[in-house]
Amino acid sequence: xxxxxxxxxxxxxxxxxxxxxxxxxxxxxxxxxxxxxxxxxxxxxxxxxxxxxxxxxxxxxxxxxxxxxxxxxxxxxxxxxxxxxx
Length: 86
What we know:
CATH architecture: Orthogonal Bundle
Distance between the termini: 42 Å
Shape: globular
Radius of gyration: 13 Å
Number of helices: 6
Strand content: under 5%
Largest sheet: none
CATH topology: 434 Repressor (Amino-terminal Domain)
Helix content: over 70%
């Protein structure tokens, strides 16, 4: 399936965040997060923004890593664009 599920799985495992904890923070059923985690379904674009918001609440480093894994180069380009210019 999609890149979001892989990124989510890696981040949750690395940062010790349970699927249930993410689901509760997002106000969703754990089965929804489980389907993303196991790449059965892909989260919608709106859900991806909610995942980031929930991860920011739980662990800011996890949120940043999810964005980097999911968006890859796009996230890096955005960070570079936002850096102050000499």
